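Task: sequence in, structure out. Protein: Anaphase-promoting complex subunit 4 WD40 domain-containing protein.
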Amino acid sequence: MVWSTTTGERLAAPFIGHTYTVYCVQLSLDKIASCDYRDLRIWHSHIGELLIPPIQVKARSLAWTPNGQQLIAGCFDGSIKLFDASTATTTGSLIAEWKGHTNVIYSIAVSRNGKFLASGSDDNTVRLWDTATQQQIGPNGLQHDGYVTSVAISPDGCHLASGGSDEKVRIWSLQHIFAKSLDGNTPKNAVRSICLQYTKLY
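Result:
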């Protein structure tokens, strides 16, 4: 469903079509992307109709590129796939694919300028990728002590935050690729979601 953040009113009827648990929903301009274990779907955000036929891919996480024309999917097989989601396409064709993780990708974050992305996986690593070359940036996986469920990139592109089942939030300098672990005041449970806003962590 789509809700107004100012009035709390429902703006669109339920989007019906998935036949499995919906793992992720991402909003971009007038489009909504959603995924389950069977496929991912791109909807018109105001009327709830599919813009293109369902894309047959087993995705666990999603992220839009800044221009809203391409959709990135983190998949159960550990791959990251980039799809054409513009209104000019009728199929959601595959543009590029990144491989490096060895297990399901729980979270994807894209930098504000669209030049790189971060992925967090069940293989206990965070990885950075160049969106132009599809090559991995920096070390071969930034390590956690458990699976990584959430990643976020600061608006200025200088820092990356990650959290997961090891009950820690880690802040990585993307200029020097080192980690600061925030584990003193975090709940004694897995970290499920992170959002970065310049110097503030939510």
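Residues 178-185 have pLDDT under 50 and may be disordered.
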